[in-house]
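Task 17 of the worksheet. Students: predict the tertiary structure of the chain below and write it out as structure tokens. Keep your answer in the requested format; marks are given for formatting as well as content.
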Amino acid sequence: MEIDYTNSRIDYIVHSTVAAQGRPSRAVFHHYYWVMHWAVMAFLAVYVSFVAGFIFMAAIFIAMFLVYFLRAVPYSRVLKSVVEHSSSFSGAKRIHLRIDDEGLHETIEDQIQSFAPWTAFKRFAIADDHLLIELVGDQWANIPRKTVVQGDAAFDELVATLRSRNVPEEPSA
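Model answer:
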């Protein structure tokens, strides 16, 4: 089977979210650790300001922490912001994908060709109408349903092919 599709910057946000599944605990923990750290520091600054009678300084510390807190929470906004501001994914990329008995053949912008045998398939997931196929070496194929030129039937056939080949499927996100 063969399909053609495009990947744009917004498609990589979905990819980053799914790629982090099973591994976000450390990054999320680290992020929220620092949020709590600054919450404790802000509390101490406000407390000392009140004890010393500097109400205006306490208000400044509260305002500074609230601005920080609103920008830092939730973590998904941080991840989305990083991906949106990345310069490496500018514009949409045209991709041709062919899956046969040997494995996955991918051609990007009619120039870059890659091949992955079936033994290189680690897992796949469907998230936000994207089919994400993880290969060994932290390589991915990111197929948004809405950009598949051949339509929904081709997208569904590709998913069925992966299931028939017993590629592990992650639960839908």
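Marker's comment: The chain has five helices and seven strands. Residues 19-84 form one domain.
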